[in-house]
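Fold tokens
===========
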Amino acid sequence: MAAEPDQPAAESAQPVEPGGAPAGVLMTDFSSPGAAPTSWADALAQLQGAEIFWLSTVRPDGRPHVTPLIAVWADGALHFCTGRTERKALNLAANPGCVLTTGTNLLSAGLDVVLDGAAERITEHHLLQRLADRWACKYDWHFEVRDGAFWDSEAPADGSEPGEQATVEAYVFRVQPTTVYAYGRGEDYTATRWRFEDGASVEP
């Protein structure tokens, strides 16, 4: 059936898998012959279930900065938090572009997922509270929400003595993906790419 006259671009700009999930494009130059692209369901399961991610940001002088952290998936985006004076927070204040990576260090098996986007700070109390609930459920890490930030009584503050606890303010960031890559290893090697615009998948 032909598309509605006033909506052809919308239909062609949102490739989907059966069931409505965004369709990925297999990058054949980096995949085994005859391999199939990774499904979005598999990539999403990795983003939802991974406990550790590596955040890559850019220092003001252009040098890269990479650090491991915890993150939660919600509302079509990854979310993480960091102390307001930490290097990654300072980097994002100057350049919100960043990459979050998770996966495995195995050569013969596993799935690595790389999410590229721009970090946006979240300050709305109801959103922060919902995310704090996600952190508590996934990591058993409990944040207090106030003044547009997470407050953490379980982490040491700058300048505190060893073993001393102090309440630390943490900024919360959302990274809605512009591009996602999935690299599968096993019987076949696969490299799959998704591109997004305003949360919707778009043609590569």
User: Anything to note?
Assistant: The CA atoms of residues 21 and 41 lie 7 Å apart. The chain is about 20% helix and 40% strand.
